[in-house]
């Protein structure tokens, strides 16, 4: 099995056993790895309806066929389980060195089940798999745990902090003291299993089918990364420059999504952050080093060369809370990493508390206090720890800015209507890591994907088919567990085809753009099957009113309506999107499953209804000829 070791490590914490099993060859052909392998394992290995914090829930870590080979952007890993926050698919992607070293440990994935009687650590190093007592580490911060357990360049540690131990539904898994698998309460799943940390490492790279072809494809890909002006600019600021850009566009989430412009944007953006930045760091093997490293005194606390806040955190602890105190944002980011919490979700629930009058807008000290309370489930933090929906209900505020229970990313869908569609229909709920962004196709540029470009962000025209194409492309990238910032799909420097060439050289299987999109579609459909099994349907594919009504500070213009996304616009796009995907109100069309080779899986998941398609051919915009 080229590109993979072909082995999965199965850990039963209740039975205290660690074994390995081969990956079915057909799975490798169909799904490659990453999110495809991970979600397939969740569908095959655990039943529907399990308690997310119970022993039956499986926690999966997975790599892809390019992981472990030292390529720029290839050091990421996938983590997934049934989410305790949403009740649907919980999946996340993290960078650093953990994925690279897991891929060089001799296994491609780790599946953790059961619950340990006492806290434990799992070691997967140099083809050796062991469980070790971790009682002395229980209660420690993630950076302390990492320092005690990793200890050398050939080891990497993914750990939970007090938030995961306390089963906070916003808890993350932190690796390499600053890279987070967050957003779905995966740290709480790990905490419920009394698994404090996983240590991986080794120097056994996966096999490559054609070394000469790989070396040639690698050289071309790396050269393209170095020559891409957008990527070299990215290396300077990473995501942080988006603060000022989105505020100028009127799309920076401000005052809990009520407004799109923040007067303090310049005080918390990329240029301002340089005042605290002492360097940059990146994932293993990547020359871009897009992650800022901050150091200095912040609110009386000394930051010791810690990973700094990126865009989502600058917005969620900044503009979302009307907070222009950059030092407090940097400190809150560090504390969330140490305590093991998702900064987006924590920002959401603190915004709810401020909206309910428990603190003033922009109160940095209150924000910092709530971060600690949430992690320890003390005071009001015990309410906020259960996520935005629970917080909004308990504090009697307006509907939370969530989709299927997941907090919206810091990208407002009212000015990007394709993003609104992608956010509403995502099987795993609101996400910034896989959704479509209208700005990708706003200008007329060449693209590797079969989509129209030159589409206005505030228009719904042609958006359903564009959303499907980009979701499938991103799903393919996520099945490699590759960094989506390194892969360019639109513009003169696009390198999506080069990525496909790398996959072909490593696996020995030619992969065209069409092949890649089909693999991406297949693996995206696995997520839909998971959500259907857990009882979700088209009714849940919606946006809350907070993300639909017009922005308070956007009056629109003569030829430009105010930024909003009406229910009618969303339903129109959603109808075309479902037809384009071959989905139905409560299932998936039989022909779709047959085309993707998922018929038997769809039929064995009884609650995922399989239907015959409606009559009529699919048209380019997602409609059918019989409907016209």
Terminal residue distance: 48 Å
Report the sheet-strand fraction. Answer: 15-25%
Uncertain regions spanning at least 5 consecutive residues: 615-628
Q: What radius of gyration results from the CA coordinates?
A: 23 Å
What's the count of strands? 20
CATH homologous superfamily (4th level) name of the largest domain: Aldehyde Ferredoxin Oxidoreductase Protein, subunit A, domain 3
Tell me the major beta sheet: 6 strands, mixed
Number of helices: 24
Number of structural domains: 3
Shape: globular
CATH architecture of the largest domain: Orthogonal Bundle
CATH topology of the largest domain: Aldehyde Ferredoxin Oxidoreductase Protein, subunit A, domain 3
Can I get a quick summary?
This protein is of the alpha+beta class. The protein contains 24 helices and 20 strands. 37% of the residues lie in helices and 15% in strands.
Give the secondary structure arrangement, pairings included.
Elements: E1 7-12, E2 17-22, H1 25-31, H2 34-45, E3 59-62, E4 77-82, E5 89-94, H3 98-103, E6 109-113, E7 120-125, E8 128-133, H4 142-149, E9 155-159, H5 162-165, E10 173-175, E11 179-181, H6 186-192, E12 195-201, H7 211-227, H8 229-237, H9 242-249, H10 265-268, H11 270-273, E13 277-281, E14 291-298, E15 301-307, H12 311-316, H13 326-339, H14 343-355, H15 364-376, H16 381-384, H17 388-395, E16 402-403, E17 406-407, H18 417-425, H19 463-480, H20 496-507, H21 513-533, H22 567-581, E18 583-584, E19 587-589, H23 590-596, H24 599-604, E20 609-611
């Amino acid at each position: 099995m080229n590109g993979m070791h072909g082995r999965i490590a199965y850990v039963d914490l209740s039975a205290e056993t660690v074994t390995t099993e081969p990956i079915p060859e057909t799975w490798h052909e169909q799904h490659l790895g990453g999110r495809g392998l991970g979600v397939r394992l969740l569908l095959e290995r655990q039943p529907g309806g399990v308690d997310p914090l119970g022993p039956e829930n499986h926690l999966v870590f997975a790599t892809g066929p390019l992981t472990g080979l030292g390529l720029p952007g290839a050091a990421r890993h996938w983590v997934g389980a049934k989410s305790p926050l949403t009740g649907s698919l919980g999946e996340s992607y993290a960078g650093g060195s953990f994925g690279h070293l897991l891929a060089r440990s001799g296994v491609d994935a780790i599946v953790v089940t059961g619950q340990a009687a006492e806290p434990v650590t799992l070691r997967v190093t140099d083809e050796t798999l062991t469980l070790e007592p971790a009682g002395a580490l229980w209660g420690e911060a993630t950076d302390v745990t990492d320092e005690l357990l990793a200890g050398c360049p050939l080891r990497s540690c993914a750990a939970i902090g007090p938030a995961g131990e306390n089963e906070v539904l916003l808890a993350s898994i932190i690796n390499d003291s600053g890279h987070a698998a967050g957003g779905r309460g995966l740290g709480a799943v790990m905490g419920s299993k009394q698994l404090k940390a996983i240590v991986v490492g080794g120097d056994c790279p996966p096999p490559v089918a054609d070394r000469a072809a790989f070396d040639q494809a690698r050289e071309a890909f790396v050269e393209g990364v170095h020559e891409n002006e957008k990527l070299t600019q990215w290396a300077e600021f990473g995501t942080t420059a988006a603060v000022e850009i989105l505020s100028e566009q009127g799309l920076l989430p401000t005052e809990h999504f009520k407004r799109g412009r923040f007067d303090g944007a310049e005080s918390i953006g990329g240029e301002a952050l340089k005042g605290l930045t002492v360097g940059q760091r990146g994932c293993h093997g990547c020359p871009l080093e897009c992650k800022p490293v901050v150091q200095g005194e912040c609110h009386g606390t000394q930051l010791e060369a810690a990973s700094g806040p990126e865009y989502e955190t600058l917005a969620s602890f900044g503009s979302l809370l009307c907070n222009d105190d950059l030092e407090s944002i940097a400190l809150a980011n560090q504390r969330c990493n140490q305590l093991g919490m998702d900064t987006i979700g924590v920002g959401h629930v603190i915004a709810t508390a401020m909206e309910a009058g428990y603190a003033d807008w922009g109160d940095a000290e209150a924000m910092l206090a709530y971060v600690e309370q949430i992690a320890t489930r003390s005071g009001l933090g015990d309410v906020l720890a259960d996520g935005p929906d629970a917080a909004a209900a308990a504090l009697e505020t307006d509907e939370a800015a969530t989709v299927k229970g997941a907090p919206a990313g810091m990208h407002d869908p009212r000015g990007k209507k394709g993003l609104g569609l992608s956010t509403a229909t995502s099987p795993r709920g609101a996400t910034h890591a896989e959704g479509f962004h209208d700005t990708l196709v706003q200008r007329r540029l060449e693209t590797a994907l079969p989509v129209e470009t030159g589409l206005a962000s505030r228009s719904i025209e042609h958006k359903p088919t564009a959303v499907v194409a980009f979701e499938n492309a991103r799903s393919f990238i996520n099945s490699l567990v590759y960094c989506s910032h390194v892969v360019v799909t639109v513009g003169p420097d696009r390198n999506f085809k080069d990525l496909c060439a790398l996959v072909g050289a490593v696996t020995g299987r030619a992969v065209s753009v069409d092949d890649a999109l089909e693999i991406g579609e297949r693996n995206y459909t696995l997520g839909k099957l998971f959500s259907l099994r857990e009882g979700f349907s088209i009714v849940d594919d919606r946006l809350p009113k907070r993300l639909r009504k017009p922005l308070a500070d956007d009056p629109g213009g003569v030829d430009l309506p105010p930024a909003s996304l009406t229910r009618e616009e969303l339903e129109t796009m959603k109808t075309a999107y479902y037809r384009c995907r071959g989905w139905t109100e409560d299932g998936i069309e039989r022909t779709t499953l047959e085309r993707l080779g998922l018929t038997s899986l769809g039929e064995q998941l009884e609650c995922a209804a399989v239907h015959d398609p409606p009559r009529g051919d699919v048209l380019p915009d997602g409609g059918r000829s019989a409907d016209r």
